[in-house]
Amino acid sequence: MPRIVRPGSSRLFFPLAVLVLVFAFTPISHVLLRSVHGSFAPNPYSSLALRTPSNAGVGFLVGNPVAVELGNYTGHVETYHWSATENGALISLGEQTVDNGRTTTISVPTRGAINGTMRVALSGTNIFVTVPMQKL
Amino acid sequence: MIAASLTAPERLTPLRLFAKKLWPRVKKLWPRVKKLWPEVAPTGIWIATAIILSVALAVSHSPLVPLPGVVTLLIIPGAAVMSLLKTRPANTAGRIVLAVCLSMMFIMVVGCVASLVGPHFGVAHPLNPWPESVLWVILAVLVLVMCAQKHCDPVTWVFDGVRTANITVALAGGVLVVLSILGVAQLNYTGNAHLAIFATTLDVVVLLVGVVGSWRRGSQWPLNTLLYCVSLALLLSTSLRGAHLYGWDIQQEFGVASQTIRAGVWVVPADHDPYASMLSLTVLPTILHSLVRLRLLAFFQLVVPAILALLPLAVFSTVRNVPRWITSGRPQPRPGLALAVVLALVVSSVAFSSELVSITRQAMALTMLSALVMVLFDHTILKRPAQITVGLLIVAVSFTHYTTSYLLAVIVTGAWVVSSMWSKGWLGTPKARIEKHRYDVHKRRIINIALVAVALVAAFGWNLAITRNSALSAPSSAVTAKGAGLVTSTGSSFIPPRDLERLLVDEFKKTDSWILRVPGSRSVPLVAAKAPRAPALLPSFARVWNELSFLGTEGLWVVLGMALLYGILRLGRRLSYQYTADLVGLAATGLMIGAFLRFSGTLAAYYSPERAAIFTAILLCAPVTLFLDDLVTFLYDAHIFHHRRVAHATLGVGFVFLVVLLVVASGLGAVWFAGQPPGELSANDLNVQQFTVTTSEFATALWLRNNVQSPNLVQTDLYGQLVLLSVPGSYGMVNEIVPPEVDNSAYIYLSQVNLGDDSTQADVGDGQYLSLYHSTINFFNKDFYVVYSTGTTRVYHGPHL
Which one has a higher pLDDT value, B675 or B354? Predict the structure, then answer.
């Protein structure tokens, strides 16, 4: 082995110290990060998206449900309350529970909507999508 | 019996086939293996330990699983090449630097060959884990056998003589790295920069203490370890900033690397993309991912800074030890002085402190360049092995970074021409000394016509003949059209939004005339926005500080010129054994190229002057150290100074100069006095807006890649474009959302800066002019639909019905 210039048991100390640090890395790093209020974890977020965004330029028919994808990346299970409004008038509302790291599709009913823009939003957040509605 | 003989012959399973045919051969070879094993036992034990450690870490679900494998892959192959070539730099630090550079070259060559040859043998994805694992086991056995036959163990070749003091200091230096990581974690999570500022201040103080403490000749301070730990700490504080990668080019590099991992093979890019032509961005991270499960993000955030931190170490190894041409009579430079030169020219350079960690291809290439210079000037390496090693590194640079390769080819060619003139004594050598001069110089010349040919063939062969990448197209067209632009500005200017809009409309008329405008978009007002600016601690000193820092950074060019002139006119003429032809050639050519790139306004759009400056600095560190060492000796010995205090005061001025450079480079000057602090010391400044990516922005980029396909168009501003480079999609992209230039059927991406900070950034003329204006969110709300939203980011699509 390469000579580490120091006699006797001192040679074992450093490999052992490195091994301890390597295996104890996870708990040590958690303690250190907590002590400085630091983290490298991703920031939590939720998302809403039209299932077929290309239809935004074409329009959705009144009466047909609009598929909206709801994503939960908050780090825990979340129950979302959503509402669909048009010009301030409530068209439909609902509730959906989503596991962390999952995306689910909600069907937003549009009966009662008129020609114009419908807004589907998550309550208490700034997360929303807007949908062009067209009556036949 | 007869019935038994009439049964079908016994079928041999693979295991029985092995036992029957191969086992006797293994038994026959065993005594030979036993005889050869002691020759390479350290390396064999190292590899076995790395494998066992990786498995143990995987079982314990540790995030450090890839660590033993990465360290092994980045040291052992290069160490094996060094031991086979009998190339051994003077100190352990130099050996580690060279081992890492040669290992990177080894990995890239193996991956390239596997990609080119594998598909012809039915292996469609040769860079995937299983094919790579088999390949590298075979390579490991072959290398061990070759090293055993040559009686040289790679691990011993590099690490023999390591002292426990080195390991102790390395562990202590690790505290600086840990502090830096904790500082950036705190800044990322809470926006509090206090710990980050403290960690950076401590790094600067440690470096300055190192300069002062090791001033005496023969000082035993562990400067190599300190320099590496502090450099790594400073680099990690930038690379770990934000939720994804920090910087501009690095996003695109990430995109190219992830595409290679998905494909499992490297191919010559059909679209002549320069990034995809580089094995450093494609094959290297893919092999590390396949073999040791290194995540791509960890490669760019952790491994590349660890490699880049070797650059100042290589330069320090070059200048600290007695250069190869000295046979007697000249002591080693003062360690503190050598450290000060490296800090001033390399660590304090804008490129090293701010840019290279986000331009990973150049980071790796410049580290190889610094190792090349180190080998050139190392007195313990024989001439022929040095030439071979230099040749290998020149070739490696060609597929690591195209621009460094082109510059290296020009510099090696120029250096050979200048050194030829120098060796003939045509540059001022007195006639009485010419014969001896020519004899001394020829003995010590490393750069020859063969290396010039290698440099030219490697640079132009790889980039133009093999990959046919377009790296030279834009700069050469610009120089042809506009000339070198030596009197034009090398920087960008901010202009009012309305002026920018006019320039943009003119530009788009020529390039994107197919854009269908939204009706009424021309009447949307653009209101100028101010760049966010964190309050400085001592703003009244801002003007003085800005002048001082400008003089400090530009004054370095004067020092470089003086050092070169001193070397040529004094040392070279009177004491020719102290100056080699290689040193003169590289220094003179490096200074000329650096000065040209510094003042060329045309080329500044493609290669910032700061990136060229560090190139020059690496080549001129040795002459500067010799010059300053003689100057300091003169100050101490001169009898014209009656008081030693005068000499000390002069040295004090030099020390203050160094302090100014380090405070500027670390960003502390911007925090304390004025200016835009770098992203690693600020929660929300212009640099943070421009170069950090948040989690929701990355998620939006992924959504765009998965939901918007060609021939659709995505438009965003400069802030938003950053993350889209990291996750490229098949859609077309335009990086403008000035209302008259928005296509009515495009997808428009608004980033967290656009929505939350109400700021949009646009540029025109290849970044020559920039502008900030308040985001036109009402325009998008009125004329488009929101198709994706995270609250902090949004994607619009139209047209409005």
Answer: B354
The interface pTM score, or ipTM, of the predicted complex is: 0.92
User: B-chain residues within 8 Å CB-CB of A48?
Assistant: 788-789
Taking the CA atoms of B366, B368, B371 and B377 in sequence, report the sign of the dihedral they define: negative
CB contact under 8 A, B163 and A132: no
Indicate whether A80 and A32 sit together in one domain.
Answer: no
Burial of B641 by CB count in 10 Å (0-12 exposed, 13-18 middle, 19+ buried)?
middle
Query: Using the beta-carbon criterion (under 8 Å), do B785 and A59 form an inter-chain contact?
Result: no
Task: Pick B64's closest partner by Cβ from A3, A25, A56.
Answer: A25
Contact present, B85 and B304 (Cβ < 8 Å):
no
pLDDT tens per residue, range B457-477 = 999 999 999 988 877 776 666
- Residue ranges making up the domain that contains B790: 495-533+687-797
Chain A CB contacts of B42 under 8 Å are 1-2
What is the domain extent for residue A71?
45-134
CB atoms within 10 A of CB B683: 16
* Number of domains observed in the structure of chain A: 2
Encoded tokens for A92? 């439909």
Query: Both A120 and A65 in a single domain?
Result: yes
CA distance A67 to chain B (A): 11
- pTM for the model stands at 0.91
What are the distances in angstroms from CA B564 to CA B81, B330, B584, B587, B590? Answer: 34, 19, 8, 7, 11
In a mutational test of the B interface, the residue from A54, A66, A100 whose CB has the highest number of chain B CBs within 10 Å is: A54
Cα B48 to Cα B43, B531, B555, B798: the distances in Å are 9, 54, 52, 60
Of B192, B786, B801, which is closest to A128 when you measure between CB atoms? B786
Of B510, B557, B535, nearest in space to B685 by CA: B535
What are B713's two structure tokens?
Answer: 């168009």
